[in-house]
Design a protein that fits this description.
Blueprint lengths: L12 H21 L7 H8 L3 H4 L1 H13 L3 H8 L1 H21 L3 H15 L2 H12 L5 H29 L4 H4 L1 H16 L13 H20 L9 H23 L13 H32 L3 H8 L2 H15 L5 H19 L8 H16 L2 H9 L7 H39 L7 H11 L5 H39 L11 H7 L3
Helix pairs in contact: 1-8, 1-9, 1-11, 4-7, 4-12, 5-6, 5-20, 6-7, 6-8, 6-11, 8-9, 8-20, 8-23, 9-15, 9-16, 9-19, 12-13, 14-15, 14-19, 14-20, 14-22, 16-18, 17-18, 17-19, 17-22, 20-22
């Protein structure tokens, strides 16, 4: 085992600027790829001669591989080193992106996406670690603010950029765009961080823990991605996947808590700050990401927006997120991070409450205002909660903690998406049934409506068909309003979870100090 190294001094001047840009570019490229392919699935499926349902595996394959590899970050870091692992992730991500663009068949594309997802896993956790270690202890919040801007903007930019590329160029370019970005990020990373490697220790490989992790995470991710298509638990496939995930998870927890060299350090959940911060961040992210999928879907299916226009409605969220994230980073050393996170959750609640009052005649301004305000919440979302999560941890545990926290967050994002899309279907059906109960000749309002439609020259079947379309649209509107309102309530409840933590002041937190010593 290598001897412990003395902490590397923080970067300064041009080196600090280049290092920050390098890490941020890598993160942006990574996060962008989780959403850029979503709107291009019909185009990819048609070009490769497969069904749209088969095409969705382009998303699923990446998500499964990524979800499995993220919590392995700490384990891999111990054996490879932070800088080497981060650089390898970028280079392999570029190569796999190139393979995705060249894919002549769906199986080749899926293989490339699996590789891409797997090598992308350590990139986000290590980006946090490298950034924190590059900044002086007192400026750790500023480092987190730079990191959060990329992770907040990329999911919004992905669908817009993906739709534009598919419509105006060709779908392989949604992957090719990673190549120049990745080359610049890799070159800058090598130039700045190559002499700041962490110590390496050779420990036995936890093959049982790794196998159990792959089994339960893979089963859960496929279940979440395919549940809606297969009508959830009415499908034998989904039932088997759910049982496999539950049993695999139970065995995984028991094994990892007793293994001498666990592949995932579950003992981190003994830390109050880590547990409270991770759960609050992950559930909040699940709500945010679920709504990020739900809002454009509702706009396209219920309000008549195109995919590009629906993506543009989401764009204003980046305005305040970019402008205020550095402000949050400067305030955090002098402010209790729980207060900033509480304010962010309250603003999120306000935004979703405003959306819960939408009607089918909603105008562009009404759509844009909550989205614009949501940027304020996003600026105070990641930074204080990541600071709380890593507070009080020694340097050598930062990569593992960051990897595990990001893993839980990513899984909650997938769970949130599945829950929201399924719940919208259920609430729409519920409201449709309630509204059609009044479709009786004995109801005077219904009778009057039918008479008015008849006066326009429509026959009986046409009148009932138009009524059904109106009811379906209104039911979908009421269903989505229910979910917006529920999101608002949950964000208020989550505030209590923030206050079970007891972080140190951000400017002197062990998170910043530990990360600075992580090398």
């Amino acid at each position: 085992m290598a001897q412990p190294q003395a902490p590397h001094p923080p970067l300064t001047g041009t080196q600090l600027a280049i290092g920050t840009v390098a890490v941020s570019l890598a993160v942006f490229m990574n996060v962008l790829d989780t959403s850029i392919a979503n709107v291009s699935i019909p185009t990819i499926s048609g070009d490769l001669g497969v069904s749209a349902d088969q095409g969705t595996w382009v998303i699923t394959s990446f998500a499964v591989a990524n979800a499995i590899s993220v919590p392995l970050t700490g384990w891999l870091t111990d054996r490879i080193g932070q800088v080497r692992l981060f650089l390898a992730s970028i280079v392999l991500f570029v190569i796999s992106s190139w393979m995705c663009g060249l894919a002549p068949t769906l199986p080749f594309l899926l293989l490339s996406r699996v590789i891409q997802g797997a090598v992308a896993g350590p990139m986000i956790p290590l980006s946090q670690t490298l950034l924190l270690a590059s900044y002086p202890r007192a400026k750790a919040p500023l480092a987190l603010s730079m990191w959060s801007m990329t992770t907040l903007i990329a999911p919004v930019a992905g669908p817009i950029l993906g739709g534009w590329i598919s419509d105006n160029i060709s779908w392989p370019w949604i992957f090719y765009v990673n190549i120049p970005v990745g080359i610049v990020a890799a070159g800058a990373t090598w130039a700045i961080f190559r002499n700041r490697e962490s110590s390496i220790k050779k420990a036995p490989i936890d093959t049982v823990g790794l196998a159990l992790l792959m089994i339960w995470v893979g089963s859960l991710q496929v279940m979440l991605d395919k549940g809606k298509d297969l009508d959830w638990f009415s499908s034998t496939t989904i039932v088997v996947l759910a049982l496999t995930a539950i049993i695999g998870f139970a065995f995984f927890v028991v094994w990892e808590l007793t293994a001498e060299h666990p592949v995932v350090d579950l003992s981190l959940f003994k830390k109050r700050n880590f547990t409270g911060g991770t759960i609050a961040l992950s559930i909040g992210y699940g709500l945010y990401f679920g709504n990020l999928v739900l809002l454009p879907l509702w706009l396209q299916t219920n309000i008549g927006y195109t995919a590009t226009d629906a993506g543009l409605v989401m764009a204003p969220v980046g305005v305040f997120a970019v402008l205020l994230s550095p402000v949050t980073g400067k305030l955090l050393p002098r402010t209790d991070p729980r207060k900033i996170a509480t304010a962010a959750f309250a603003v999120f609640a306000l935004c979703f409450w405003m959306r819960s009052r939408y009607t089918t005649g909603v105008d562009t301004w009404s759509l844009a205002v909550p989205t614009l305000i949501q940027g304020i919440a996003m600026a105070g979302f990641f930074i204080p909660l990541v600071s709380i999560t890593l507070s009080g941890l020694p340097g050598q545990r930062i990569p593992a903690a960051s990897g595990l926290s990001n893993f839980v967050r990513i899984m909650c994002g997938g769970i949130g998406t599945s829950i929201f899309t399924t719940a919208w279907d259920h609430r729409t059906s519920f409201h449709h049934a309630q509204l059609t109960e009044r479709a009786s000749a004995l109801d005077p309002t219904f009778g009057q409506s039918m008479a008015q439609l008849g006066a326009t020259g429509l026959d009986a079947s046409q009148r009932y068909s138009m009524f059904d379309r109106l009811v379906t649209q209104q039911a979908a509107q009421l269903g989505v309003n229910d979910l917006f309102y529920l999101s608002s309530v949950i964000f208020i409840v989550l505030i209590a979870l923030i206050w079970i933590t007891r972080p140190e002041r951000a400017g002197a937190s062990d998170a910043g100090a530990a990360a600075s010593a992580a090398h």
